[in-house]
């Protein structure tokens, strides 16, 4: 068992080193399409090394140009989404401090938001609108933090305004992680006092994980209010996760 764990960790370290080299040596010269291919392949391989099998739930196609919003469970979420269709992510500033991975996601175009910094938020909001206007795909986690599976926190509505200003649809994405029996995989939860390293070790040495990704019906932003969009996205994701009751308990949308 220890030998298998050591081998998995060695493969993970080597893959991270390869990612560092790609970002430093290839990304400065790569166009957008090439970057996306590299990010997609690298993310998919990271999942395989961690014994996470990606499963697309039948439903809507993944839009190439939209504001993507998803529930937030784990550090794996970014790579699950990027393995399907790479996005420019907006994430909390704490992610930048993750060992190695924080630097890698920054090089992939992730923008970090410091909590409570309104000036930072205004600057980032303009960047999101500009990126969407350039027909780029932008994603963020409107809960603002990770939540245990089975819990869907209220959505912060502020950044939904970017879809309205850029006149692009919002596409909700529902994420879940299950074990071989279809139950929520407890090793994936990244909450409380769990550190990034603790989370990696729990996943790598635990039972294999199935990551389920469901692209849901796009929401038209034209003429909508950001709170309405946020609530509609929340309700769609809650329904996809079978959490109708949880959705009813969290009708308030912040922002």
From TrEMBL:
CDD domains per UniProt: LPLAT_AGPAT-like (cd07989)
Q: What is its EC number?
A: 2.3.1.51
Phospholipid/glycerol acyltransferase domain span: 66-178
Q: Does the keyword field hold Translocase?
A: no
The alphabetized UniProt keywords are: Acyltransferase, Lipid biosynthesis, Lipid metabolism, Phospholipid biosynthesis, Phospholipid metabolism, Transferase
The first-level EC class reads transferase
Which branch of life, at top level? Bacteria
Recorded catalytic reaction(s): these are: a 1-acyl-sn-glycero-3-phosphate + an acyl-CoA = a 1,2-diacyl-sn-glycero-3-phosphate + CoA
Recorded domain comment: The HXXXXD motif is essential for acyltransferase activity and may constitute the binding site for the phosphate moiety of the glycerol-3-phosphate.
- The molecule here is called 1-acyl-sn-glycerol-3-phosphate acyltransferase
Origin species, per record, is Telluria antibiotica
């Amino acid at each position: 068992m220890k030998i298998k764990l050591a081998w998995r960790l060695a493969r993970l370290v080597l893959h991270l080193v390869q990612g560092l080299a790609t970002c430093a040596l290839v990304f400065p010269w790569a166009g957008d399409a090439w970057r996306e291919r590299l990010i997609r392949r690298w993310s998919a391989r990271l999942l395989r090394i961690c014994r996470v099998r990606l499963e697309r739930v039948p439903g809507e196609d993944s839009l190439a140009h939209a504001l993507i919003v998803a529930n937030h469970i784990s550090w794996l979420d970014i790579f699950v989404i990027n393995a399907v269709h790479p996005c420019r992510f907006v994430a909390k500033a704490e992610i930048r401090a993750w060992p190695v991975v924080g630097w890698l996601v920054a090089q992939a175009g992730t923008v970090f938001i410091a909590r409570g910094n309104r000036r930072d938020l205004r600057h980032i909001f303009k960047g999101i609108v500009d990126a969407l206007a350039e027909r780029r795909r932008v994603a963020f986690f409107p809960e603002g933090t990770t939540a245990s599976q089975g819990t869907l926190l209220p959505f912060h509505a502020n950044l939904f305004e970017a879809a309205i200003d850029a006149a692009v649809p919002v596409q909700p994405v529902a994420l879940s992680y299950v074990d071989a029996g279809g139950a929520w995989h407890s090793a994936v939860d990244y909450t409380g006092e769990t550190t990034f390293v603790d989370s990696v070790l729990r996943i790598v040495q635990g039972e294999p994980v199935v990551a389920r990704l469901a692209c849901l019906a796009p929401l038209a932003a034209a003429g909508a209010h950001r709170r309405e969009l946020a609530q509609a996205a929340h309700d769609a994701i809650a329904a996809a996760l079978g959490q109708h009751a949880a959705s009813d308990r969290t009708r308030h949308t912040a922002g």
